[in-house]
């Protein structure tokens, strides 16, 4: 538990630091430009706009402004119609803001922000009089969102490769867990029910859906941020990897499904193979930026596929399908790790020899720079030291 908490903190530490600095900058700018009010919403707007996945921070800032505009207009209209800032104005303002946002089909965050803006507009009018909270709040929102856009699109655009690999690792972990459970069930002669297969399919669909959304966001971010000034190669390469990962997930499901229909003797023979495939997937998910991790996964998958061999010509359809599933999973693992498909096919036909995994593309800290420091060599040593210290 403590290790998982530490991993989450270190993963998002850079985003937290950006949000803290953006809040201070927004507060300072709003306080200097707008006199006579407390610019509390400017830092709030900056943090809210940045508090989302890296590829959506720019869109989140636009959503924030949209909600603020709806809320302020609804709040001011409610004050005029009711002649004050009482309970009636509050109810009317919130209702108008949410209805208008729903009418144009915006995201839920815009609806909530519109309601919050209408509430603050009416409450400030009721407590301080004059009804001037709306324009000041809109100015604060513009400043906060502007600061967020400068941070997210110009200075520190999202580390798209790191984001995609983190989601890829989650999907790989789900696949590994599925094969791990399936391998243990084969040893115990447990039947994998259709309900369990549906559960596995649901567990895999969530990270796959998130991965597809992240890939779509990454394409928008590359076009609209300073990433386009740098080297787009790593991002484009990671986009191609996602297609391979989807195929790998389908192969794992196919393997888990076919093993459920095998005889008891065949299950005992296949159990260690399935477990080794799960181990290879866990190794990949542990550090996708490590060439050594990818190499270990490729070697494990290749050995397992060779050891299981191909089904004979007189084998029954279930056995033939299972042999095919093992080969498909091994092939997809190796292709995902960076081996060309032609090399994988040749390696599977041979009894000896191995495959050399290329170095994965680096993860730049500042994507708008073409030059990247050689941090991969440092990372190569650090994961082995970290694992050895556990």
UniProtKB/TrEMBL annotation:
Domain named Integral membrane bound transporter: residues: 27-151
Transmembrane annotation, as ranges: 12-34, 111-129, 141-162
Organism superkingdom: Bacteria
Membrane topology: Multi-pass membrane protein
Localization terms from the record: Membrane
Annotated keywords: Membrane, Transmembrane, Transmembrane helix
InterPro entries in the record: Memb_transporter_dom (IPR049453)
Protein's name in the database: FUSC family protein
Organism field: Nocardiopsis codii
């Amino acid at each position: 538990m403590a290790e998982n908490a530490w991993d989450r903190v270190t993963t998002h530490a850079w985003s937290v630091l950006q949000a803290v600095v953006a809040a201070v900058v927004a507060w300072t700018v709003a306080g200097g430009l707008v006199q006579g009010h407390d610019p509390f919403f400017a830092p709030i707007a900056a943090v809210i706009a940045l508090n989302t996945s890296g590829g959506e921070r720019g869109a989140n800032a636009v959503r924030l402004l949209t909600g603020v505009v709806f809320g302020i207009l609804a709040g001011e209209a409610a004050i005029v119609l009711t002649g004050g800032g009482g309970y009636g104005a509050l109810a009317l303002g919130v209702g108008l803001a949410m209805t208008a946002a729903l009418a144009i089909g915006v995201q839920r965050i815009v609806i909530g922000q519109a309601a919050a803006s209408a509430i603050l507009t009416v409450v400030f009018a009721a407590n301080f009089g004059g009804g001037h909270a709306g324009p000041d709040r809109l100015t604060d929102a513009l400043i906060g969102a502007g600061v967020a856009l400068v941070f997210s699109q110009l200075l520190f655009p999202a580390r798209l490769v790191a984001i995609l690999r983190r989601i890829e690792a989650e999907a790989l972990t789900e696949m590994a867990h599925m094969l791990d459970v399936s391998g243990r069930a084969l040893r115990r002669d447990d039947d994998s029910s259709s309900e369990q297969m549906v559960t596995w399919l649901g567990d895999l669909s969530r990270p796959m859906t998130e991965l597809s959304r992240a890939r779509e966001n990454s394409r928008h971010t590359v076009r609209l941020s300073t990433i386009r000034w740098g080297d787009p190669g790593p991002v484009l390469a990671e986009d191609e990897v996602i297609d391979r990962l989807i195929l790998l997930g389908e192969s794992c499901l196919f393997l888990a499904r076919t093993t459920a229909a095998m005889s008891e003797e065949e299950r005992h023979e296949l159990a260690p193979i399935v477990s080794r495939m799960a181990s290879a997937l866990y190794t990949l998910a542990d550090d996708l930026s490590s060439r050594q991790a990818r190499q270990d996964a490729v070697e494990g998958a290749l050995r397992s596929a060779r050891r299981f061999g191909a089904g004979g010509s007189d084998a029954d359809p279930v056995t033939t399908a299972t042999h095919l599933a093992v080969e498909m999973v091994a092939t997809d693992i190796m292709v995902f790790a960076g081996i060309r498909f032609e090399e994988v096919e040749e390696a599977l036909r041979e009894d000896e020899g191995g495959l050399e995994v290329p170095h994965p593309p680096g993860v730049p800290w500042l994507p708008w720079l073409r030059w990247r420091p050689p941090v991969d060599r440092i990372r190569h040593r650090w994961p082995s030291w970290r694992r050895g210290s556990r």
